[in-house]
Design goal:
Layout lengths: L9 E7 L2 E6 L3 E7 L5 E8 L8 E6 L4 E7 L4 E6 L4 E6 L4 E5 L7 E5 L1
Antiparallel strand pairs: 1-2, 2-3, 3-4, 5-6, 7-8, 8-9, 9-10
Length: 114
């Protein structure tokens, strides 16, 4: 199936529960859901904007979109991956890999970078 709905290159896809999330260079995150006839349809579109001076990622809790924090990087973050045991990883344009872990009181903490 080919999904059409972004105006630029799709850089990330994520399945969560019964939804598919797509993120694109058009600064949009779209949420897709299956219709009764089995097709995928965009049910929500979140618009953002890029700022070359700010190297950060905002984190939101789903499905409420509660603000859960912000990650800062030396250069533009190129990838963000969820790992086992509450770990997640970011990689920026400098080649720096940073590992984070979730904490109840702060929600996240940088574990180490290399």
């Amino acid at each position: 199936m080919t999904l059409n709905g972004h105006d630029d290159v799709v850089k990330s896809l994520m399945c969560w529960d019964k939804y598919l999330f797509s993120g694109s260079l058009d600064c949009m995150i779209k949420v897709w859901a299956s219709t009764e006839d089995g097709c995928l349809e965009s049910i929500l579109a979140l618009s953002g904007m890029t700022d070359s001076d700010v190297k950060s990622v905002h984190l939101y809790e789903l499905p409420t979109f509660t603000d859960r924090g912000r990650l800062f990087a030396k250069q533009e973050v190129q990838t963000l991956q969820i790992g086992p045991g509450g770990l997640f990883f970011t990689g920026d344009q400098t080649g720096l890999l940073t590992v984070y872990t979730r904490l109840a009181e702060k929600w996240l903490r940088r574990a180490f970078s290399f």
